[in-house]
Amino acid sequence: MGGFLTFISTIRWQDIVDVLINSYILLRVYILFQGTNAFRVLVGITSLWLAQELAASLGLILTSWVLRGITAAAAIIIIVVFRNEIRSVLQVRNIKTFLWGFPAREQRTPVDIIADSVFVMAKKRIGALLVFPGNQDLGEVIHGGIPWNGQVSHEMLMSIFWPNGPVHDGAAIVKGEQIAEVSALLPLTRRHDLPSEYGTRHRAAAGLAEESDALVVAVSEERGSVIVAKDRKLTPVANSKALSQAIKKHLKMPEISPAIQRKRERLKLAAAAFVSFLIISGIWLAFTRGQDTIIALNVPIEYVNRPTTYDILDTSVDEARLQLFGSSALIRSLGPEQVAVRIDLSKATKGRNTFAITPDDVILPPGISVNRIEPTTIEVTLDTSTSKEIPVQVDWTGRLPEDMGLMDVSVVPPTVKVVGGSLTLAKVDTIYTCPVRVGTLSKSGTTTAEIVLSPPSLRLSSSSPSMVTIRYRLVGRGAQENQ
To answer: Are residues 117 and 231 part of one domain?
Structure first.
C-alpha cells in the first residue's frame, strides 16, 4: 500500500492531462472508425505493436525486430488501401462533429435490410421468394438450390431477383446474415382454397409453409404485393416494419426498444472510454516508468527562513552536487529551474551552524528522486549586523627608485564606516585599499584607490565612499636623511 501511495505522489498534473488528452483522442478514433474495415485492420496493427513490445520486454530481439517491421509495413498499407474509407470518415462539415460529435450511422440488422429490399422490389414489380428456415431440416423438401453464401445486402437481393437473371425464378434461402442458397425449388401446395390471383410463387410459399416450420416471403410481380406464409396461413404485409417484425418473431429475435438501445450505446461508449484510458495509461507507464536514468547536477544552495536579526557571514560550500534518478523521459524534460536545494535557517543561532542536507531539502518534479547528495552537511555562520569606524590604510606594492623616498602619506577620508557581523568586525582593525604600485610614482601628488573589504561579508555604509584619495610626497634620499 505504501508503494502505491508513493507512486501516486510522483504523478504530476501534466501526466494526468497527458493521459486524458490521448485517451480522448483514442476514443474519438474508435467513435469515428468503428464498424469500418479500416478500424478492424487498425485493431490488428495495435495487437502487433503490443506483441512487439512484449517481445522486446522479454528480450526476444529477433522476434521484436520482425514484428516492428511488420507493424511499420501494415501502418503504410492501411493508409494506402483504406484511403477512401479514411477520407470519408475525416471529411466532416464542421470541427464540432470531428472533435466531439457522433457520426450518424444507421443501425440496421440484416432482417431490416431484407424487409426494406422486399418492398423496394414490390414497388418495382420484381417477383421474389425468400425462405427463413425454422428448426426443421429443409433438405428433403427443397431441391435444386445453388450454394451462394453471400452477405445480406440490398444490392445482392436486387441482383438475385432481377428479371431475366439466371437465378431469379427460384427461392433464396436466408440463414442468419447470409443468403445460403439461391434458385431453390419449393414444393407447391395442393390447396384449392387459395385466391385465383395467387400464382406459382404464392403456391410455392404456401407449399413449403405447410410441410415445414419455415417462414416464406413472396413478392408478386403482377400486383406488387407482399405476403408471409407460415404454417397454413398466408398473411398480406402492408409495410417493411410489419414484415421485419414478422421475420424477427419467427427467428425469435428479441425486440429492443429505443430506450434500451440508447442505454446499450451509452454503456458501450463508457466501456470504450474506459478501455481507451487503460490503453493510454499502459503506454504512459511504459514510456515514463520503463527506462530508469541517473543524472548528476550541480545546484546552488538557497537559504530560507533566515532570522531577520542575523546575516549570513560565511558558508562552507555554495552548491550541492545531486545524483538524480528517474525515467529517461522525465530526466530529458528536466530543466535547471525545476531543481533547488533549500536550507531552512529558522532554527539557526548566532555563530557557526551545521546542517545536514537531506532529500527533504531538495525540490524536484514528481517522478524524480534523489540518489545521492554531496556534501551531506553544510556549515553556515550567522551573526548580528553592526557598524564600526575602521581606519583605511594604503596597500603599497612594488619598489621605489633607490634615490627616492615616500613621505607624508595621508588618506582622505582616514576612516570608513563598515557594516557587518559583530563577530567579524571585532577581528577587523584596518581596511586596506586595492594595491597601489609605487614604481609608477615619479613625483609628489595625489591618487585614488578603491577600498577592498575582507571578508566579503562586510560592506560599506551608505555614508562612506568606496574610493579614497591618497596624498603623498616623494623626496630624494639625501633630503630625507637631512630631515
So the answer is: yes
